[in-house]
Amino acid sequence: MIKFGAYEDKPFIAQLYDYVPFYAQRPDLGFYLDFARSAGGRILEMGCGTGRILIPMAAAGCDVTGLDFSEFMLARCREKLESQPKEVQERIRLVTCGMAEFDLAESFRLVTAPFRSFQHLISVEEQLSCLRCVNNHMTIGGKFVFDLSRAHFQFVQSDAVGKETQDFSNIELPDGRKMRRTHCFVACHLSEQYNDIEFIYYITDANGKEERLVQAFPFRYFFRYEVEHLLARCGFNIIQVFGNFNRSQLTDGSAEMIFVAEKVKE
User: Fold this and answer.
1) pTM of this prediction?
2) What is the 3-state secondary structure of the chain?
């Protein structure tokens, strides 16, 4: 069973998501839009959330199915869609479902998993199940594009555990409240290649009263050739591996691992 740290049943995550600077300013939108425009058919976005990438894809003329585990995130996406033209709304289908097992009765030319969503699949069984589902929903020659964070060894060492580190502060929300956030590595599971992580949101109202909200979740880290082997086992061929959304090559200093894979067999 995949554990998202109650991602699917804590509404505050969806309410605050679009105001987190790291998310709103993430430089991946143009990268995924380029693949969407050249897909030549329907697109599936796994982990579509509040529509940060999905809605611009539809606005660019693409037909997109968005899949997410959280109905709260999808509800926020629907709210945002209300301000879009009718033709944009009609290009989008939203489905409440997890990544590891789904059957959408559709076939896609492009499947994407932006913003490290694949890293929420902790076990190899979950990862293979997801990749087989992706393969089953694609035509031969279709592309699967997704990004992962690089595995940095300072995040898997014991001296990183238990330290609450500030991510940002003094973000004003639409209702006038202020938001800051920290993160903490709660535990490192070296033999299983995942960390227990907390994002801690501090919300302060106009009277100075502070609320503490915690999103706790396990997060898997991967190495390049591990991912390539997983893809090969599930009928994919690696086309490109990038280290940045500007399509630069993967190097020791890259912050991202971005995979472009093509379906070559069932």
Assistant:
1) 0.95
2) CCCCCCCCCCHHHHHHHCCCHHHHCCCCHHHHHHHHHCCCCCEEEECCCCCCCHHHHHHCCCCEEEEECCHHHHHHHHHHHCCCCHHHHCCEEEEECCCCCCCCCCCEEEEEECCCHHHHCCCHHHHHHHHHHHHHCEEEEEEEEEEEECCCHHHHCHHHECCEEEEEEEEECCCCCEEEEEEEEEEEEHHHCEEEEEEEEEEECCCCCEEEEEEEEEEECCCHHHHHHHHHHCCEEEEEEECCCCCCECCCCCCEEEEEEEECCC
Supply the pLDDT for residue 266.
81
Amino acid at 126: E
Quick: pLDDT tens for 144-192: 999 999 987 766 665 678 889 999 999 999 999 999 999 999 999 989 9
Q: Which CATH number fits domain 11-151+222-263: 3.40.50.150, 3.40.50.1820, 3.90.1150.10, 2.30.30.20?
A: 3.40.50.150
Give me the pLDDT at residue 156, please: 63
